[in-house]
Amino acid sequence: MAINGIFRKVFNLSHCAAPYRTLLIALVIGVLCVVSVYAQEIPPTTTYSFKSSEQDSVHTSTIHNYQSEAERANDALLITEVKKALADEGVAAYRAVVVDCDHGTVSLDGVVGSSADAQQAATIAYNVDGVVSVKNNLKWP
């Protein structure tokens, strides 16, 4: 009875006879159920295209010794800024490049297209405000 009252207010079904009103409510609920099930089955429309190979994987582990959360946050900010700068220049496009930072010293690890790309990546990283030095461990085919 409560659902009937809600639908009557929302859809103004007071002019319909009771049997038709119930049928209409059941029809609306059925349509909503079908639409919600169908909507859950629609795959996402975003696709990602990238190249990779077995040689493009990078694994690093570095131990950081921070005296405060501010030092940790500063390094995290530098990592983000270096990654953005590399992405803006397209140096690390479609490549596995890992950026790490320890007290302002940025480490670049991974694979790039050429030695020129590796040098350019180091230069870009060094030019980010706050970077003290760059350890360029990048490799190329």
Outline:
The chain has 141 residues and is of the alpha+beta class. The chain contains four helices and three strands. It folds into two domains: 40 residues; 86 residues, Histidine-containing Protein, Chain: A, CATH 3.30.1340.
If you had to describe this structure to a student in words, what would you say it looks like?
The protein is an alpha+beta fold. The chain folds into 2 domains: 2-41; 54-139, Histidine-containing Protein, Chain: A (2-Layer Sandwich). Helix content is 48%, strand content 14%. It contains 4 helices and 3 strands, in the order αααββαβ. The chain has helices spanning 2-11, 18-41, 69-89, 115-126, and strands at 97-102, 105-111, 133-139. A 3-stranded mixed beta sheet has the order 1-2-3. Helix 4 (115-126) links the parallel strand 2 and strand 3 (133-139).
| Helix content class | 40-55%
- Main structural class: alpha+beta
Rg, alpha carbons: 29 Å
What is the strand arrangement across the widest sheet?
A: 1-2-3
What is the global morphology?
elongated
Features:
Histidine-containing Protein, Chain: A; alpha+beta; 141 residues; elongated; single chain; 3-stranded mixed sheet
Write the layout of secondary structure elements.
Elements: H1 2-11, H2 18-41, H3 69-89, E1 97-102, E2 105-111, H4 115-126, E3 133-139
Parallel strand pairs: 2-3
Antiparallel strand pairs: 1-2
